[in-house]
Amino acid sequence: MIKKLLHKSFSMLLALLVLFSTVSFTIEKHFCGDVLVDVSIFNEVDKCAMEAYEIALEKITKKPCCKDVVDVIEGQNEMKFSSFEDLDFEQQQFITVFAYSYINLFEGLEKQIIPHKDYSPPNLVTDIQVLDQVFLI
Known about the structure:
With 137 residues, the protein is an alpha+beta fold. It is built from four helices and three strands, in the order αββαβαα. The chain is 40% helix and 16% strand. The radius of gyration is 36 Å and the shape is elongated. The model has no long low-confidence stretch (mean pLDDT 82).
């Protein structure tokens, strides 16, 4: 049972690893001056109120106060698939021996037979140690 649970959890972990390594997304940030106004991952950023006045400011100062920063995080586009036969002989031998020793590492113990499991001890009428005055010191 624990082997199935470990197998399923490792499978899910590897599937999530492949999923997150291939996903790409963008992070958009909107600055008004040096102040961060909005950050967005999936939607467009909300512009501040100065954005409407930026056209008028460009005519006067030629320098806009608002700026947008876009960070693109790209995932993998191509996956490389390889098989066991693509490895050279030493690598195949190492993987085979490692897998065999790892599987045999968790072999269960044999079921122990307890011969006196169903045996009930006799009823004690008198305490024999006190009767014979024999004590362990």
